[in-house]
Amino acid sequence: MLRRAAAIPFAVALAFAGCGHQVTPSPTTTDLSGDLVIDFETSGSLDFQNVTYLIAVDTCGNGVPYPQAELTGFQSYSYGFFVGGQFGAALPKLFQYYLNPNGSGQFISVQVLSLNPSTTQFVPNLGNQPNEFQLTFPRSDFENPLAVPQPCPNTAGLATASPSATPSAGASPAPTATPVGQATTWIFNFITVQNNQPVDSLGIGGANDTSFQGVSVDTTTNNSQQIVRAAGSQMPSNPSAAIIGGEIQNFP
Question: How confident is the model at residue 72 (pLDDT cuts 50, 70, 90)?
Answer without folding.
Answer: confident
